[in-house]
Hints:
The chain has four helices and 22 strands. The chain has 308 residues and is mainly beta. The strands form three sheets. It has a ten-stranded antiparallel sheet, with helices on one face.
Amino acid sequence: xxxxxxxxxxxxxxxxxxxxxxxEEENSTASGEQSHWKEVEExxxxxxxxxxxIGVDSQKGGRISTLKIHGFNLLTGPEVDSINYxxxxxxxxxxxxxxxxxATLDRQPxxxxxxxxxxxxxxxxxxxxxxxxxxxxxxxSEQDTxxxxxxxxxxxxxxxxxxxIWEVTRMHKxxxxxxxxxxxxxxxxxxxxxxxxxxxxxxVNITEEDTLTNKMYANGQGWLIYLFDSLALIKTFTNLSLxxxxxxxxxxxxxxxxxxxxxxxxxxxxxxxAPGASYQWQVLWFPRVMKRADDVxxxxxxxxxxxx
Length: 308
């Protein structure tokens, strides 16, 4: 009869403790191991953190193609519109180019600079018409399940140029966009209004029946919340003063049309860029599940107190 006093029994126990772990421990280790973007197919990069998955397509303007929470993509894809999908970056103001946006910046391939140290860095080619290029750096944080996006505009000309840059994110209708106003008289639309306002909180309601081409403009306070059922994307960005706005535009814009998607948009400051110089602008994304009725209000309170 053997007892635990014999040395090799302790050795067996030690080996078992070393190599055996619970499923929760294994999942925790595996989820913490991702320290780089994975190329899931040519030019398509993906980052997974818990229930959130982010996809970036370097072959289509370096745009964010997917933002999935529990497997549902909050961004509309090419099955809705073969050109206008995901989240892209435009040059502002729009009257510089009309329509469509410069293909070099919006939808042509970006080259991979690096996908190391958790940062995916992409760079557009130089647009011949404007003599500029865009850079995009995507940095996920598993600590707070966020995505920090650093956009860069490079002036390759020999003269000073003045621009803003403009994040355009295509999302589902039957949803709401919420933000607070900085100046109430900045709230306007091309046609009739499609929002409600309570004190300074603006709630933009968009349904599938909203098919009239229309656009809302407002000077907010550097944040917005997109809400689709219990899923949300919170964005924080530079809070613009009136003298920083690009001509004909505003800090926050929401565009609707007879399409199955809407556009949630923000502008950077309107800045002068010296020859050979660059300007950077950061946007922070927080994908979230709003589990309780008061979760949205809690986020509004945090944002109004300056989370970014």
